[in-house]
Design brief:
Layout (H helix, E strand, L loop, with lengths): L1 H31 L29 H4 L29 E8 L2 E8 L2 E5 L4 E2 L4 E6 L3 E9 L5 E9 L9
Antiparallel strand pairs: 1-2, 2-3, 4-5, 5-6, 6-7
């Protein structure tokens, strides 16, 4: 049995060597007709020197890189006024939980961060300079000032709707 295994392995090794010899012979034959060629690099042409003549302005000064800002007369928010507490919260995080009438004026109860705040027409809410313009029994209308891509201030109307508490079924 051992002799049979030795004989079989010798035949297999002999077959491998003949395959490699055939491949090596074919490679040598193909190599004879090959000739490598590398194209020479093109000549480097020097570029003409151009002198920078912009006066005192530096080419990479921030004034030249930053976009020109427009003068915003009258339509922007009043940045000098005192901020109100509800301007610290995004408008999406505020919830209208109730409306009260006091001396024929309506007041809204707005919940922000586990606290209740009383809001009247003329108060500011939200982080986009939102001015409360109207209060009804079910909603508070807010006029926000948002800066667009061109740097102009655009008015946007948003509403806080009354959040009704849903009773959990037992």
């Amino acid at each position: 049995m051992k002799r049979l295994l030795i004989l079989a392995s010798a035949v297999a090794l002999a077959a491998c060597s003949t395959d490699q010899e055939d491949i090596q012979g074919w490679m040598a034959e193909q190599e004879k007709g090959m000739k490598g060629s590398v194209k020479p690099l093109p000549d480097v042409q020097p570029f003409p020197v151009v002198e920078y003549t912009a006066g005192d302005a530096a080419p990479f000064a921030s004034a030249r890189i930053e976009p020109e800002t427009k003068a915003r007369a009258g339509n922007g928010p009043d940045l000098g006024r005192a901020r109100e507490p509800l301007e610290a919260f995004p408008l999406e995080s505020l919830a209208l939980v109730g409306v009260m009438k006091q001396s024929a004026k309506e007041h809204a109860l707005v919940k922000a961060d586990k606290s209740l705040y009383q809001v009247r027409v003329g108060n500011y809410v939200g982080q986009n300079f939102g001015l409360v313009t109207n209060i009804t029994e079910t909603e508070v209308t807010v006029k926000e000032l948002v800066e667009d891509l061109n740097g102009d201030w655009v008015e946007r109307t948003s509403k806080l709707l009354l959040q009704e508490r849903q009773e959990a079924t037992r």
